[in-house]
């Protein structure tokens, strides 16, 4: 009876004195022990952690650099111009932020020399002379070239182009055009045949890659400014290709050429897009026009252009939401923006890495923009191309050829790094050299 009473009292104490906090747990355990319970909780805790609530360890706070204190030895220095770690106010356009324009000359204004190998060196290195030489050894004598004489060499050329990421269909068309231009020519020696084929291929590639419309953006910009209106450039493309970053590179280059730029945040769809563009604007020291999220991007762009006109800006760079080419609502919104605002240049931003996928994306964008335009006679499609990550593809430059060949749009810029200065114009002869060897 005494044991039963003790057990009853022990149960009662366990209910009434259940610990509400971790500090009260010791008293609860003592009550159980004193009441003659069968379990010694202090020993049980030492054997097992199961069922015991513990506070999770607090994450260690990241050590932020102290202002004015140099970084520790060996620490990796990140490019300051693309650092998103520091939050900034929307209107923090200070003189210090504007100093980004003096960080270095944009590579857009740098001239690059391209050295060509002669036939002997290219033969040794496996270039055009090397793989073509064996094909033309049988072509001698002062007789007209026949299709059969050229087809083996052009088949080899087609394979070479495809290894450089040129689409098969485009490589086939290119080789066929060379054959058509050379059949019937009389070339007395094997060496002259090699030279003629190389020259014909170079001319065909240069014809494709050389812009059919003016790509003198600064000249066009000043001509437009003379009319009292700003030059408007809209950046479009699929998700994740770096539209905002490359827009900032273009703004940096324009700023170095004394162009007064306004950025327009018309990606009102993706969370964080406005803040990302604001970071670029602050670091560049240029103003940003924004209306937040869930607004009609066409209306935001129109208001930005109106502000630029009133306040004497030379150019408006319009950032848009990344969208897959089969996303109907977003493609309709993009078409509306272009139809309503009539930009001077619609710039397609694509990755040099994706190869033929980029060609498909560009073609589909053009097709959807044409289909959605209310007036077929006034259709506006892609006017120019910006290829990002061009520094990562080595000699696999075929995407540049494929995108230009299929769309007729020139490559106005290539991105070649992570800083604002890392933007270049396309060196057409450099591309031809990489393709032909």
TrEMBL record:
Residues 1-81, 104-127 are annotated as: Disordered. The keyword Nucleotide-binding applies. GO terms for molecular function: GTP binding; GTPase activity; signal recognition particle binding. It is a peripheral membrane protein. Keywords: Endoplasmic reticulum, GTP-binding, Membrane, Nucleotide-binding, Receptor. GO terms for biological process: SRP-dependent cotranslational protein targeting to membrane. It holds the Pfam family SRP54. Its main location: endoplasmic reticulum. Residues 110-121 have a biased composition (Acidic residues). InterPro entries: AAA+_ATPase, P-loop_NTPase, Signal_recog_particl_SRP54_hlx, SRP/SRP_N, SRP54_GTPase_dom, SRP54_N_sf. One of its GO terms (cellular component) is endoplasmic reticulum membrane. It comes from the Eukaryota. Coiled coil: none annotated. It is found in: Endoplasmic reticulum membrane. Residues 410-423 form the SRP54-type proteins GTP-binding domain. Belongs to the GTP-binding SRP family. This is SRP54-type proteins GTP-binding domain-containing protein.
